[in-house]
Amino acid sequence: MFVESKYQNKLKRYDINSYPAHVCKTSIPRLHMASSRSSSLTEMHRTRFINKIDKESLERGDHIYAYRKGGLYSHHGIFIGEDRVIHFVRTNEGNTSRRVEPCQKCGVDKNHLRGVVKSCVDCFLNGHSLRRYRYSASHRRFATNLGGTCTTGDADPPDVTISRAEDLFNTKDFGDYDLLKNNCETFAVFCKTGKHYYRKPI
Ligand SMILES: [Zn+2]
């Protein structure tokens, strides 16, 4: 069983500064790259069709993601089946300036969404396109794809992935959200691989 101490050991084992980033660029550098409006727009255009899938092709244990804010950043999670996704959020996913009624399908209250949460797929997508993160990507794909879309690392079997996600949902023990070191993408990659990584912004 996945327990707190085990997770803490894993964090030590995969020291965030020394972990060889086999994981592709995270979604975080996207924010830094967006400092140039023209390069940001080009990147958004390129990402439009990458990894896009239909809901019907979702498989249990998939690492999925969806862009936000016109492609400026992406939100990641683990699909566990039966229209549910476990994901790691910083604070409110919705617009904090207005109250949002709890979802009638999954009961999630977006006004108080924080930490490791479980929601329906629609709440996760928040109106954006569904995409599947790639594992075991070739080095060529790794080099040519954009941040937050793939990794050359291998994924563990779906049941192992889901078990990690469920355990972290139950224990709420993925630590504090950190934009660079501990975010929704590192959460999903950890569930898929058992490894925690941190890649410094480019
Ligand atoms: Zn929902």
TrEMBL record:
A Pfam family recorded for this sequence: LRAT
List residues of the LRAT domain.
65-200
Q: Which domain of life is it from?
A: Eukaryota
Alphabetized Gene3D superfamilies for the sequence: endopeptidase domain like (from Nostoc punctiforme)
Which InterPro entries does its entry note?
LRAT_dom (IPR007053)
- Spell out the protein name for this chain: Putative endopeptidase, NLPC/P60 domain, LRAT-like domain-containing protein
